[in-house]
Amino acid sequence: MDDILLKADELGRIEIATRGGRRVIRRDVAAARWWARAFARRAAAREARALARLAGIDGVPALLGWDGRELLRSYIAGAPMQQAQPRDRGYYRDALRLLAQLHRRGIVHNDLAKEPNWLVREDGRPALVDFQIAWTRGRRGRLFRLLAREDLRHLLKHKRTYCPAALSARQRAILDTPAPHSRLWRATGKRLYKLIARRVFGYWDNEGKGRVRE
Please, which contacts does 73-77 make with residues 24 or more away whose CB atoms are closer than 8 Å? Predict the structure, then answer.
């Protein structure tokens, strides 16, 4: 089976490849632009650390290899959230449990506002991908708790979009009270981030899609 290109931008290429007769996801850091290669390598190394710490959790890809140039992780069949639009209460119940497992292992995803990072598997259960900016330090101090709460709040925002009737009063209260760093980010850095993301990487919405460069 030929490789299937999912994304190609300044940070490299992401493809569905075949290794040992099975599908895998391949992140090719060597294909990054020269000026972005160091950043791309650090991001891939961070993802590898996160996946190693999360080994054995159902709903998270398994780390299959990382050699400094190529990251391989297991393929999870399913559709990204923005396509599947999950409206079943059970999906969000399972997603909360999956998120709790991440946090118990000392990992914060940090990029759950992007719907493509949530998958709806073929059996309707959730999965998480793309751990490039995950918190991997393991320490569960105040900053960890703030970031973990934002993971939760981003999940609840998706729940509000697709299954609002299932939100509890407590969950609505969490949605109404973003963390201080989140409010500061929206008021200051978010505009600059969007400008860079759009002009440099071709990201035009919260789906986080990169352009396929020539």
Answer: 73/24, 73/25, 73/27, 73/47, 74/24, 74/25, 75/16, 75/22, 75/23, 75/24, 75/25, 76/119, 76/121, 76/127, 76/129, 77/121, 77/122
Question: 156, 166 in Cβ contact below 8 A?
Answer: no
> Tell me, what amino acid is at 131?
F
As a whole number of angstroms, the distance between CA 1 and CA 156 comes to 38
Q: Which amino acid is at 154?
A: H
**Type of residue numbered 74:** S
* Distance in angstroms (rounded) separating the CA atoms of residues 50 and 28: 18
Cβ–Cβ < 8 Å for 53, 93? no
Q: Which helix (H) or strand (E) holds 17?
A: strand 12-19
What is the per-residue pLDDT across 44-55, written as a single tens digit (0 to 9) for each?
Answer: 999 999 999 999
pLDDT tops 90 at residue 184: no
Give the distance, in angstroms, between the CA of residue 202 and the centroid of all CA atoms in the same chain: 18
Distance, in Å, from the CA atom of 132 to the CA atom of 66, rounded to the nearest integer, reads: 13
pTM of the model: 0.84
